[in-house]
What we know:
Layout: H1 3-6, H2 8-20, E1 27-30, E2 33-36, H3 49-56, E3 70-74, H4 80-87, E4 92-97, H5 100-112, E5 119-123, E6 136-142, E7 146-148, E8 163-165, H6 168-176, E9 181-192, H7 197-206, E10 209-221, E11 224-235, E12 245-246, H8 250-253
Parallel strand pairs: 3-4, 3-6, 4-5, 6-9, 7-8, 10-12
Antiparallel strand pairs: 1-2, 9-11, 10-11
Amino acid sequence: MTLEAKSYLRSLERSQRSRTRTDRPSVFSMYDREWDLLPEVFAPIYSPSTQIAMGFLGLAEGSDAPRWGSLLEMGSGSGLISVSAALAGCAHVVALDINPDAARNTAMNASRHGVADRVDARCSDLFEGLAEGERFDLVFWSSNYVLAPPGFEYANMHDRAYVDAGYHAHRRFLEEAPKWLTPDGVALIHFSTRGDLVALLRGAGDGDRSLRLLADRTVREGELDIEHMLLEVTVSTPRRRDLAFAGSDAAAHA
């Protein structure tokens, strides 16, 4: 993977193009449904990541959707994943996003598709918007996997969907996600080779967490082949503590 593909400046350029293009719609079509899209919210139509995440979760068109009892989605954006999960039978969905417009956008699409009673959209900096006793069968984040410098200051909320300064959010997610699971629940993160896998593994190891590769998919993005990965986050046992990336060949994906 080239340094250009991993460049946070390139990702910020993509963010700027997405939020300012003159043909950006207020309503878009995906999976045979119409979706509201607010101006400062990540647009799934301009990036393959949402559709890949839908496939990873079994929510894409033509797939057999799983029936989780409860889902916590981090970074819900327009709400496509959270609303689709509710439509597929998930009884209780909490959709969190640090962008207040994204939380409002998710609520709009939950109402549009008749699942507002099952989708609770909240503005939250990661897990801060949760009550102490809440637990979920699935915690999922399609992450902003491009690494920005630790001191980077965001110009707007839209850029937060594209880059993570110093992987601060990733480290917090790895540390905290397992704490919000039901006894049989799973925590999953969607990552890609546009991100820094070595830094992610280091963050997992520092927090006594392990990452296990569950699925991957390579897609053509412009002139590049980008690998997308679905990783399970688990609490390390003493035996596995030195193997942060369990169940796969980490070197092959670095």
